[in-house]
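Okay, can you check this protein?
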Amino acid sequence: MPDAMVHHGFYTAYHNTTIRPGILNAVKEAKEFYGDLDIMITGHSMGGAITSFCALDLTVNHEANNVQFITFGQPLIGKAAFASYYGKLVPNTIRVTNDHDIVPHLPPYYSYFPQKTYHHFPREVWLYNLGLGSLFYGVEKVCDGSGEDPTCSRSVTGNNIADHLNYYGVDLLCRQWRSCRIVMDTRVAEYGKTDHKGNFILSRDPATLVLKMNTRSNEGGITSSA
C-alpha cells in the first residue's frame, strides 16, 4: 500500500506482541468448532486502534472474507492513503464516536493538510444529544463515507474525557489498577464461557457451548466431564 503510513506504536502493539498469535489461534479454534463463521472484532479507545490492525490482518493475510469491525472512541491510526485503502479492504467497519469525546480527535487532524495528516477511515456513527435544557434525546448519526464527515464529530471540539468513558450507557472507566479484561453488559456475559486459554466465547445456547468445550480431545488439555 504505497504511502499508507500508520502510527508505529499502535501497529507494533498488535504485530510485535502476544496479541496477534493469541487472536489468530482463537479464530482458528472457533472455525474448527463452528465452521466458516462471521468474525466480529471490537475495541474501545487504544483497543480500537490495535484491533484495527487485527481486522486488516485477518482480511489481507488470512483471507477472511467475513470480518465485521466496530470500535468505540478510537484514535486516528494512519494517514489519508492508509484510510482510503482500509475502507476498501475492510468495508464492514463502523467507528462509533460519542459527542465531544477527545480521543477520536487525537493525534490532531489538520484540515489544511488532509493528505499529510492523520485521517479516520469510514464509516463513522456519531452519538450526540439534541434538545433544549433538561429535555433532550440521543441521536445516532450515520456519517458520510469520507471518514472525516465535517457534520459529525469533526463539527465539534473534542475536549471531553467523560464522553470517552461511557458508550451506550456502559461505563468503561477503570476504578482501580488491574489486568486487562473484556468489558460487556452483564446480560451478555450470561451467554459466554472462558476456555482453558482465557478466551471468552459467546453462544446463543450456553449449555451447548459448555458441552463442546468439555468434550474436546485431550490434545488441547481438556478432559471430558459431560
Observations:
- Confidence is low (pLDDT under 50) at residues 217-226.
- Residues 19-34 form the longest helix (16 residues).
